[in-house]
Amino acid sequence: MAPPHHRLVRQVFLQALGGIYLIAFTSLRRQVKGLYGSRGILPVRDLLSSPRMTAMGHERYLWYPTLLWLDASDKTLVRGLRAGQVLSLAVMAGLAPQAALTGLWALYLSYVSVGREFLSFQWDALLLEMGLLGILTAPTGLRPGPGRYEPSAAQVVLWRALVFRLYFGSGVSKLKSGDETWRKLTACDYYYETEPLPNRGGWYAHHLPQKVQKLSTAAVLALETVGPFLALAPRRLRLLGFWLFSGFQGILIATGNYGFFNVQSLALGLWLLDDASLRRLLPAPPPARPRPWWRTLGAWLPAAPFLVLGANEVLARFNRPRSSPRWLEWLEMRARPLRAVNPYGLFAVMTVRRPEIAIEGSDDGETWLEYTFRYKVSDPERAPRQVAPHQPRLDWQMWFAALGSPPVWLLAFLLRLLEGAPDVLKLLAINPFPERPPRYIRATFYDYRMADLETHRRTGAWWNRERVGLYLPPLSLAPGGTGSRLQWYAGE
User: Fold this and answer.
1) DSSP state, 136?
2) Same domain, 333 and 391
3) What pLDDT is recorded for position 492?
4) Is residue 396 situated within a structural domain?
5) Is 64 inside any structural domain?
6) Do 451 and 417 sit in the same domain of this protein?
7) CA-to-CA distance for 122 and 442, rounded, in angstroms?
8) Which domain holds residue 226?
9) What's the mean pLDDT in 136-149?
10) Last residue of some domain: 282, 306, 338?
11) 38 contacts 75 by C-beta, under 8 angstroms
């Protein structure tokens, strides 16, 4: 029997990877000045010129690998994302895919390295890991099409190992967390109501019978703990894994908003297929050339570190921390700033309540008006929206902020609202102070619950909310000084 072929799989996957990069760069371009510009929430320029960075010396270039060291102006931030869009289109068109993917990886790493909380999502790390493997896998040449040579066994193994780690990491993290909702199969009773950015499908799914929720929870655990081994199984079982994982991602897309994560996962599943699976949809490519021995060796050499680091990451989930060989520690240290091999695992602990933060401004300290976010849960009568594959990073981080104490970036956000920073205000849907910024600002805590079907039919409300108290007391701009600062407002 002839060995399976993967040139069509590689070609379709790389075009999909270019599309994912296009989504990521386009989504970030809409937000970059408000998040990272000179008058944004976390200015990149301030981070790179900070005393902490200066004290690091040349080490800062190793731990923060970014092209923005050359220039972090607002224009450069936008131009870098435009360049990413152009290179993404080149990959989708099959133009110099290896060179274009190298540029895309370097650009995206440049933003993630200095992006802090707003670029710390698992799909950002996954895109960089996929980008690196894409560079290793892509054929050379200006218009290589499916490529002259078959992908090597090393390259195919790398992709299937990534599929395994992506799903298995999520499953193991749920089992090892000791979370009661996963142990008692009640996680889906809470999931749709407490996920960061619900959509309308998730709202309706929340009202399914409890037996369905329990069965769904068990299915998720099975798919994420047993299912990943299908990625390493013989062909027929791999095809089963492809359809199971694709269906799982389809359900996640229909019931939630996870940026471009689900699209990434769907694209990765292509590596569970072979060319024979695609020939009903795509014409067969011309015969491949025999691959020289040195190309096979050249594929295994760069693949080895990825496989070793990936295996170590999986094993570390089961073993107690112990000292690793010095060469492995060195390899991990060098790979970490590049996000070359990453741990994955969403919803290890299920949140069972939905706290939300409302930002309110006032001119007199008595009458307070609420800022409206574009996508975050706020107005109980506003229907949950379909946002993905766009990633509204401020709205997402507001969900995380509500689960703990106020993070530093939230105080910076409130400061920009008091200053009336235009780029930050563009991240919001409605600014209740269009003429001038408010004198005071505060953060109020609410508890949200999805309205039941009868209440929704009767009133049109999608949510019930109850005011809990203040998350942050009123703040105002401190007078004097060389820069804007916050101070507590105790009333007049």
Assistant:
1) H
2) no
3) 45
4) yes
5) yes
6) yes
7) 30
8) 7-142+150-338
9) 92
10) 338
11) no
> Do residue 285 and residue 393 come from a single domain?
no
In a domain, 346, yes or no: no
Q: Is residue 349 part of a domain?
A: no
Percent of residues, the chain, with pLDDT higher than 90: 85
Q: Distance between CA atoms of 384 and 463, rounded to whole angstroms?
A: 9
Q: Which amino acid is at 160?
A: R
Same structural domain for residues 314 and 405? no
pLDDT in tens, 126-138: 999 999 999 999 9
- Treating both helix axes as pointing N-terminal to C-terminal, what angle do 153-176 and 210-225 enclose, rounded to 10 degrees? 140
Residue 1, pLDDT score? 44
In the block, tokens 């695992």 appear at 345
Q: Any idea what DSSP says for residue 272?
A: G
Q: Return the structure tokens found at 121.
A: 């999502």
Lookup: tokens for 142: 């200006």
Which residue's entry shows tokens 């991240």?
Answer: 427
Q: What CA–CA distance (Å, rounded) separates 359 from 440?
A: 11
Q: Are residues 170 and 307 in the same domain?
A: yes
Q: Which residues are CB-contacts of 221 (< 8 A; sequence separation ≥ 6)?
A: 171, 174, 175, 182, 185
Name residue 474's amino acid: P
Q: Which residues contact 17 (CB under 8 A, 6 or more apart)?
A: 91, 101, 130, 131, 134, 267
Task: Give how far the C-alpha of residue 173 lies from the chain's centroid of Cα atoms, to the nearest Å.
Answer: 18
